[in-house]
């Protein structure tokens, strides 16, 4: 488990950059941020299958209260990525390779659908928001992996909001391509993929946007499956 939590902290950027659309962050509770960090850690294998998530350790890691940690674990539990074991608390579920492939396939369908709807419903104002969020992504790529993760999450949230509406933001914000983006080269490649998607959406190209989103998900899936295949098979046995 990493020492430093990847929290979605808007302070990573200057306040002026968030002049438009800040309500997306204002409604984000600490528990939700912690849950998102844990989900990303589980899906990218920074937390191994079978690992126990103990409240006391998580309170230290995230500098959060026990109630906030319990709510975060409840949110993660609702995704099916953790379950409860007697006397030991939450445990990360061991996914089979087939289950991981299926999860990635479903995520690709949702991501592609969201991109298609965004292209079909893009307006002048929503395009401005999307371009602004992409600008933050580009800037964050030169800062750190944590800053980039925040900016990428924000861009994806704008995409959901444009394509599917505000009421689906909280329900769909986990259905995005999750990659282990640590190096500057990886971030540059990710920016290029997002640049193409934003361009297609801006032009109203629904078919192209859907295809690009699915292609982006394929890249993320390949990274996840490669990580899976590199692990000792014993780690994945229930």
Question: Mind explaining what this structure looks like?
Answer:
This protein is mainly α and 238 residues long. The protein has two domains: 65 residues, Winged helix-like DNA-binding domain superfamily/Winged helix DNA-binding domain (Arc Repressor Mutant, subunit A), CATH 1.10.10.10; 137 residues, GntR ligand-binding domain-like (Four Helix Bundle (Hemerythrin (Met), subunit A)), CATH 1.20.120.530. Helices cover 62% and strands 4% of the residues. It is built from ten helices and three strands; from the N terminus they run ααβααββαααααα. It has a three-stranded antiparallel sheet. A hairpin with a 3-residue loop joins β2 and β3. The protein is globular and about 55 Å long. The two termini are 20 Å apart. The N terminus and C terminus are likely disordered.
Descriptive terms for the model:
single chain, mainly alpha, Arc Repressor Mutant, subunit A, Four Helix Bundle (Hemerythrin (Met), subunit A), 10 helices, disordered N terminus, disordered C terminus
Query: Any guess at the CATH architecture of the largest domain?
Result: Up-down Bundle
Averaged pLDDT, please? 79
Q: Major sheet: size, sense and barrel closure?
A: 3 strands, antiparallel
CATH topology of the largest domain: Four Helix Bundle (Hemerythrin (Met), subunit A)
CATH-assigned homologous superfamily of the largest domain? GntR ligand-binding domain-like
Lateral strand order in the biggest sheet: 1-3-2
Number of strands: 3
Oligomeric grouping of the chains: single chain
**Ends apart, CA distance between termini:** 20 Å
Question: How many structural domains does the protein architecture include?
Answer: 2
Q: How big is the Rg?
A: 18 Å
Sheet-strand content, in percent, reads under 5%
Structural class: mainly alpha
Counted by DSSP, the helix tally is: 10
**Quick one: CATH class of the largest domain?**
Mainly Alpha
